[in-house]
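The records we work with from here on pair a chain with its fold. Here is one such record, which you should read through line by line:
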Amino acid sequence: MTRSKVERLRFELNGIESWAPLDPRHTNWPVVYVLDGPNSIPGTARESLDDVYVGESRNAVGRMRQHLASPEKQHLTTLRVVLDERFNKSVCLDLESYLIRMLAGDGAYCVLNRNDGITEADYYEREKYRESFRDVFEQLRNDGVFTRTIPEIENSDLFKLSPFKALTQDQAIAVEDILEGFFTDLQAETTSTIVIQGDPGTGKTVVAIYLLKLLVDIATTAPADDLDSDSLFADFFTEGYRELLADLKIGIVVPQQSLRKSIEKVFRKTPGLWPRMVMTPFDVGRSDGYYDLLIVDETHRLNLRANQPSGVLNRDFRLINERLFGMDDATKTQLDWIRAKSRHQIFLLDAAQSVRPADLAPETVDSLVREAKGLHRHYRLASQMRVKAGSDYVAYIRRMLEGRPDARDEVLSDFGDYDLRLFDSLGDMQREIRERENERGLARLVAGYAWPWRSKTDKSAFDIEVDGLRLRWNSTATDWIASPGSIEEVGSIHTVQGYDLNYAGVIVGPDLRYDPEHGRLIVDRTSYFDKKGKENNPLLGKTYSDDDLLRFIRNIYAVLLTRGIWGTYVYVCDPALREYLRRFIPSRAVDSSGH
């Protein structure tokens, strides 16, 4: 197969005019190009990053003349053109989106491209062409464009949470429909409530970030800017839409601390997005302003009026209620704050990922979903973007944990090459996780909160002592997965919810057990050490039973068991539960050499 060639030249008119006659493909052939140069706005938070722009064209020279005439591109200094005699329009669009995603994930540049419709479009012999993309990447990396390898980029939060991710078909349909409805509501000057539901791995957070970036790009794109009419959302960059977004105040609310910090990191490197757009529910409640649109990720993790982790937050909850509603109404939740402080809301949720009593009650979430359905503003994401076991895997895990297998579950389901294993030895599982870490990266041990966190205050202490092993919980609460030494630690639900792993080694602690006499899963309250995870709520008169606690613990393990992209390994402390799970998870013996 012919190798793609990358030609480099100065981004200036004389050089481009001299380059034009050297090859007919410079003026009449599909190409992909990369432009880069120093940041155009010195003194900004992004001044340490160079700007980069990726494009495709059938006339490279003509397109460069247009860019040189554009004030937004004149500061760029270097042009690299990817030439290949096999290229066609579809290949170039795919390579263009691939390079945009990889540059955003690399984090060394500010990517200037708009977010107007990157999708996973198929075309003839796509897989063969995609094999050559890695060669293009390496040529550009050798020329200084990329600073990290492909695996390093693909394992990073900047890549996984990038606003330039390619959308699946159901994501693209939902985004287009949401935009149409949102602009209709803006024009009619009405309010709106939109709900997006999806199982773990369907890309709810990706859609939230994508939508925010897309709206910012529509709002800031001048009418004279050149638009690709073939792009998915090109129609929204035409006259009228920009004006509807003028001066709109938009933000994204992320209840989880670790995920929020990761999204802030992405926004810090993305033109048009700023870390201040990423807020806690408390930030919204305390703010003086009023928001035109709030996008709420992990809506099910918004809080009731419940005891907060600190006295300051308890005080703030009361003050916000008094400020917004005239009194500290105990029935008001952070969901009520969001609605009181914004005209339009987009809620992304999965009620089965609620893991604490302080989270919104199931009936509140159900009511929100019914409301959105009644307004025809409800969207469900179905395509599995994370777990390579297919779309049935999440439902399979949830049925397994609920003790309600159907007939097909009695025979182990076929998840293809997905590496699902049950281990009888925690040491064997740890060794396998370390091997996967060496091979692919992002392999971590995670566990239910079935051991106290002694090492939080005593760094020499061990937290988890099981099967002859002594392990420690995560040493940091934010960005733990990417932190140094995390391969030697065990992550809790609060460090991994919302994140991807390549391989997850899940330790099912003694908090979850199996009662063989009655054929059901049960909870051991004394072995569950998340104080906020089993705390009663006297303010609301709520006492949480063992059945309530079982729901939260099941949800926790369902989340942990759906983190792994390529595989999930499981070790179970309770012998009866291990035997029960053996019906669903293959047991594979490991010999003395570790294989």
About this structure: The chain has three domains: 5-153, 169-381, 393-581. Confidence is low (pLDDT under 50) at residues 591-595. The CA atoms of residues 265 and 275 lie 7 Å apart. The longest helix spans residues 169-188.
